[in-house]
Amino acid sequence: MDNLKEINYGEAIYEGCYQEMENDDSVFVYGLGVDDTKGHYGTSKDLHKVFGAKRNFDIPLSEDAMTGIGIGAALGGLKPIYVHQRMDFLLLCMNQLVNMAAKLRYMSSGVHSVPLVVRAAIGRSWGQGAQHSQAFHSYFMHVPGIKVVAPTTPHDAKGCLIASIRDKNPVIFVEHRMLYSNVGYVPEELYEVEFGKGRVLIEGTDITLVGVSYTVTDCIRASLALKEIGISAEVIDPVSLSPIDYELIRKSANKTKKVLVVDNGWLTCGFAAEVIADLGINCKDLDLDRMGYLESPCPTTRVLEDGFYPSPESVAIKANTMCGGDSNWKPENISRKEINSFKGPF
Amino acid sequence: MDNLKEINYGEAIYEGCYQEMENDDSVFVYGLGVDDTKGHYGTSKDLHKVFGAKRNFDIPLSEDAMTGIGIGAALGGLKPIYVHQRMDFLLLCMNQLVNMAAKLRYMSSGVHSVPLVVRAAIGRSWGQGAQHSQAFHSYFMHVPGIKVVAPTTPHDAKGCLIASIRDKNPVIFVEHRMLYSNVGYVPEELYEVEFGKGRVLIEGTDITLVGVSYTVTDCIRASLALKEIGISAEVIDPVSLSPIDYELIRKSANKTKKVLVVDNGWLTCGFAAEVIADLGINCKDLDLDRMGYLESPCPTTRVLEDGFYPSPESVAIKANTMCGGDSNWKPENISRKEINSFKGPF
Amino acid sequence: MKKFDVKKAYSLFYLIRKSEEKIIELYDTDKIKSPVHLSIGQEPVAVGVSLALDKKDIIFSNYRGHAHYLAREGNLKEMWAELYGKVAGSSRGKAGSMHLSDWSVNFMTTSAIVATAVPEAVGYAYSQKYQNNEGVVICYHGDGAVDEGVYWESINFASLHQLPILFVCENNKYAIYTHQDKRMLGDSIVSRANSFGLKSFRVDGIRTEDFFNAANDSINNIKNNSGPILLECMTSRWRDHVGPGEDRHINFRSDKELNDAITNDDLKNLESLINKEDVVTIQKDIDSQINDAIKYSEDSSFPGTKEITDNVYG
Amino acid sequence: MKKFDVKKAYSLFYLIRKSEEKIIELYDTDKIKSPVHLSIGQEPVAVGVSLALDKKDIIFSNYRGHAHYLAREGNLKEMWAELYGKVAGSSRGKAGSMHLSDWSVNFMTTSAIVATAVPEAVGYAYSQKYQNNEGVVICYHGDGAVDEGVYWESINFASLHQLPILFVCENNKYAIYTHQDKRMLGDSIVSRANSFGLKSFRVDGIRTEDFFNAANDSINNIKNNSGPILLECMTSRWRDHVGPGEDRHINFRSDKELNDAITNDDLKNLESLINKEDVVTIQKDIDSQINDAIKYSEDSSFPGTKEITDNVYG
Ligand SMILES: Cc1ncc(C[n+]2csc(CCOP(=O)(O)OP(=O)(O)O)c2C)c(N)n1
Ligand SMILES: Cc1ncc(C[n+]2csc(CCOP(=O)(O)OP(=O)(O)O)c2C)c(N)n1
Ligand SMILES: [Mg+2]
Ligand SMILES: [Mg+2]
């Protein structure tokens, strides 16, 4: 992996998709607006011009059937990628994903496979309100037969997408709108990021911070702020949520003895609950805690929305408290370009 | 609550529903087959004859719309009860339940309320296979704005149903097919079982067993087997899953120092994960573990199915091991009438 | 049966148009804390339908709901404050543009998930019939909504139970940038709905009065137990799908298509039917109402963060 | 174009009928580890359609799938072993009656959730077109399936893309005990589907040959790029919705309705068209096949519990 290029998360997805479409004729991309001029944040832009309309096409608003159609096409030997503008829309696809995609292999004792990729963007920017902001990764983690990945870096975005396409199983590929502009070094060639392996993004000794998708960036920023007050926070990006790299998290937990899981969604029965439950069962003498969306729908007005989501500040404050620090401490204002520069309209 | 009658779980639901329909004209019951001769295990039998077709009616197979129709009727001042023969079918209702029912009150800052009750039966008997056996209580626990109850006893079934109907919020009322024949003493009058309160069904000192719905009976039976080898297991029935009585479970955990949560569903991001995460965060020095559906879809053939679900035996064995007992110990065959006597055809 | 009131029509139309234009004007200031889906170009439908309604009738709308709300004579100040995300908003800022609701005018709810409030409207109609209430339910939706299965499930139930509901399909031909032809074979919304037992009509008018007439007849029929009705109202969206901008640069429709619609603007036509003085009075009155509403919104405060978890449960 | 082969038709019909009767006979022994939805009465549809198919054609079915599978000349032994929950079953007992599948005869998948395999069938047809493959997809479903929104979404996509698929609606008039009239206004499956751009025809026959003719024409048309077609096949379910029993005691339909259907049993008719000797040979052969299949199933072993978590992921 010699040739590295600095590109953003959206471009990395585009590149992974493009290259794998070149590589494999059976890959196709469909979803609302995937062939319009915006091309889902550029990730599918003009693919129809290169690969033809049968391999990149717009669809009617029919999330339920279009999921089943992807499953059927996968049974027929193709590798469909279904792109959703908002993860909230997956609620219309639950029957197909859970009752069919996750089960066809099992029910046929291994004859069927469903190499379907469902890309879904978590909608946060501002003003998205209760129905355009939700994250449901934990719904899919709950169900055997489906894999879930939530890459944070451009490198992982490209590699996970390629691995997802090549995987025999249905994969939910979780994107986050505030990640598309994230820049990083990405190999030019085709490569896979292996599922089931997490990454220690920052090493530390005092506390472990585990994020998911966009909240990984909250954890990174919090750890930088914590560093300034002498707290060494280890930051873990699980990357793959199902299967999940419990070992890596346990190892870090056994080292730091303190774990704060910052979910990108609600807490009850969520990813954070799962990670903490695993630690509670398999490790001893840990201080554990969790943060995530507040226990309400997402409010539309900006002031409430800002409080609804975890932030680098709130993560740093909680971590500092867990480390015995002053609970009145507040980090200097931490800049979040992607949030502050977002201008809408949507 | 003087007049007690010995009736079964199904009859208790019927009685609660009937009495509340008498009491409140705005209550109505709908769902597939609710007005047929079987009347959903007798729970809605002949209600249309007493209260008229507008208050108990059969519907087209349209789970998605019929959920929204219930929500709309609730907005219009009625109190709908939507009955599902299998909880698996709720996967078709997720958009309406999560994006609408759970949020309308919040989005209107308290003006709307959605007093909708969704009754859903977990389908286990035998041979139900991958699509007729699932339990999704944790999906609804995950989402703020929805309540979830899963009564185990006839007493709680009646009282929870009445409380659910009267509640201003959408309530998922979880039933279990193997509970319908459970017999118990039930007050004749109308009464409510308060949400957010669990019950200690059996007191014990060595280990706490927490079940959900039908697995509460596994825990009870396991505790009886454990008693014979001198282990005193406390059995908790949370009854209400959202809100959930964390306090009660923590108190028991702090006493016994060992908690085994037996879920009636998959483990990852499920109810058991939630309870254990809470204990991991809020209590110290506990031995924690969990059991539930194995990590696969439900197989159809009986031999595999028997191993897929937790059982009184498997619960007792695990609990005994947690208490330091011999891991080769097996309880005498524990009778489960409702499972063994089930003859189908469905 | 109601008669078409030109002055009222003009006044509501002008109110909607000016409000939307004000949103465009202000949007860059970031004072509006919400994505907006403007109704400019589609006002004739909302105004025509609303003039046919009684107070008791009930509205279900969608994220493109400003016109529906204002034509219903909802509270202008509260709507503006809601767009500003302030406590004086109809939902204290929690709803924003996409989820307007206001029970004082029976404006029930608006969903941002396409077609998702359609069954709610049907369920409300069921409750009207159940309780022997008078009001007819109006269910606004776009041409994209009929792509969704839940739409046909809902229609089926409404026709099976002969519920008092009028479906108003605002067919602007596009779901975002996707033309109806790329989403269904044939131009067949009316025939599809008819086959489900729903009496369905297309209103090809560009005139507010045409939509009024169709709605007026329909509401009257529904009140006389005709069962549910669908009006497919052909219309045109002048601005981008979302946000204050235009969308010509996206090249998904011809300039001519849009220009024709703009040339036929019924606001000019209505204005020509009223005497000049009245026009001036109406305009002045509405301009100042809008300015007041904006001032009111600016003066109102933001909710406090402790409100975040209020009203999750009742 | 194929010709109707009476002997083959009789033979398949007899195979299905006898297999189902054997299930009824054995059910009380609890050896069959699965709920069963019998096809007795509905055989003419499956047999008629199957005789019109080529090997390359692909079947999607539902929980009432025995007839579809056997008419397709699936493996009788493996089907029986699957009902017994044994390792020799087509899915090692994990599927049971409700989820039969067998790729060796392009019998793809059967769902127990109503209408849920319909979009899969459409997606498979998309993949056929994409890959320029020859086979036509057959999508069997009941009259209840058309109540589901996903059905109309699927039909819409199939007609929009002119996919090579034949929908076979087995209209036995009931979803469990609920008559079509209680589920939709009018008797309009064909007109609904037509309005979605799907060429649709009702086959009112009680004769296997009528279903064959309709399917044969349709398949031929689809192969000549007619686009998708729907056949609404009027038929009758003689036994209870699920299980081996009858359902007269439930009183949801008139005895006459059922008696008429039984009187018209096409098995007798087909038998009358073949010479006696052939009938005897066919019957003997099939009876012994079924007995062999049962013996095979009894001899096979149950899977071991370590198989529970096999084949969750590939
Ligand atoms: C279920 C769902 N899928 C996709 C979207 C994204 N989306 C928002 S509006 C829209 C177009 C809807 O078109 P139409 O119903 O014609 O209404 P219009 O915007 O033209 O008024 C789409 C696809 C959504 N909000 N909900
Ligand atoms: C989505 C869903 N809802 C309800 C059921 C319960 N159910 C099983 S079969 C059936 C009737 C289906 O009728 P139809 O499609 O006509 O098929 P038939 O059984 O008559 O062959 C119902 C309601 C189900 N399996 N799936
Ligand atoms: Mg439109
Ligand atoms: Mg039927």
- The secondary structure category of chain C is alpha/beta
Task: Give average pLDDT of chain C, whole number.
Answer: 97
Q: Report, as a whole number of angstroms, the end-to-end distance of chain C.
A: 40 Å
**Compounds present?**
thiamine diphosphate, magnesium ion
Spatial separation of the terminal alpha carbons of chain A: 37 Å
The largest pleated sheet of chain C is described as: 6 strands, parallel
- Global outline of chain C: globular
Please report the first level of CATH classification, the CATH class of chain C: Alpha Beta
What multimeric state do the chains show?
heterotetramer
For CATH, the homologous superfamily of chain C is named as Thiamin diphosphate (ThDP)-binding fold, Pyr/PP domains
Helix segment tally of chain C: 11
Q: Please list the strands of the largest sheet of chain C in the order they lie side by side.
A: 2-1-3-4-8-7
Helix content, binned percent of chain C: 40-55%
- H and E string of chain C: HHEHHEHEHEEEHEHEHHH
State the major sheet of chain A. Answer: 7 strands, mixed
The side-by-side strand order for the widest beta sheet of chain A comes to 3-2-4-5-7-6-12
Give the % helix of chain A: 25-40%
For the largest interface, the chains and their residue counts are: A-B, 46 and 46 residues
Average of per-residue pLDDT values of chain A: 96
User: Judging from the principal axes of the Cα atoms, what is the shape of chain A?
Assistant: globular
Please compute the radius of gyration of chain A using only Cα atoms.
20 Å
